[in-house]
């Protein structure tokens, strides 16, 4: 061990240290520990929220989505489908028609987001974990078309799956109608479906109704046209890489986005919040570490005779500076290690036992999501090291300069 650290350790554990200086050092350790622990926990919560949102997106959104660069619809040709399906990693391609429509059930009605999908949708088994009632099927054994309904729509329309006599009516304005008369039945195309299942993911998806593609195509007057293609990948393939390959094949006439790109605004907002919180907590750690500055300054005053003796024995100003910087490092690192261990322990307990609930009975998760990322722990450690060097250098330099003057 370097002599500067040996002396610093002896100062740190010295029983002759004045009680007030010892108290300030302990306060500094506690402040650094609490700030470090808070940073680890808060950053892990943001990581968990980002991971949770990605799981929510994956429950409903496709891995890659293809939409027209201009307009709302496009013709799907066999050549186009083949071009997409031949891209390495593509498992399923679902044809989609999606638009707003009016839903009516009994005496209730509401505006919904109608999504028509082909038979590959059921093969994805994407909504299996989100079903809260009924079954995930679009066409019954006898050819009856079914609708998969979001929980929000069910509540708005008071839909009952047990009522087999009341149909779910979907209305869409007829194409070519110059003036829309809301009171005229001739102004709307109408489709009757039987409610087959209820799903719940998150509030942003609460206005959706999923129905068979053929029926929705007839309702909206899409003549072999689609509003999107949803691509689902095989395990082990990166969504960004596959979307880039599909985009290169289809050209500029189409917009190809992976799931993260579709939800880029929300993910960017989470990362920005995480950054601002990290900066704020770093400032809090800096304020807590100022106590290290005061404790080292008073320690330098108390140990001025020892410093003079060290100079008399041939010590240099550099050695004296290193002693006090090492003293500050011991105080800060002790608090940082305790804070890191405490933060990791709290996160582990939350992941294992879910101690803190989100307080939402309809949420996908009961407890706050937490995800430990070692890069965040490393970042926290680096912040503590930098702050320690900053607050320890000035009193260490003053102690060395004062000792040199006493020697003279």
TrEMBL record:
Q: Which organism is it from?
A: Dyadobacter fermentans (strain ATCC 700827 / DSM 18053 / CIP 107007 / KCTC 52180 / NS114)
Q: Per UniProt, what is the membrane topology?
A: Multi-pass membrane protein
GO cellular component annotations of the record = plasma membrane protein complex
Compartments (UniProt record):
Cell membrane
Its main subcellular localisation, reduced to a broad class, is: membrane
User: What is this protein's name?
Assistant: ABC3 transporter permease protein domain-containing protein
* Residues in ABC3 transporter permease C-terminal domain copies: 281-400
GO annotation (BP), single: lipoprotein localization to outer membrane
Q: Does the keyword Transmembrane helix apply?
A: yes
Residues spanning the membrane: 20-46, 275-301, 331-351, 377-396
Q: Which Pfam families match?
A: FtsX, MacB_PCD
> Does this entry carry the keyword Membrane?
yes
Family according to the record? Belongs to the ABC-4 integral membrane protein family. LolC/E subfamily.
Residues annotated as domain MacB-like periplasmic core:
27-246
Record keywords: Cell membrane, Membrane, Transmembrane, Transmembrane helix
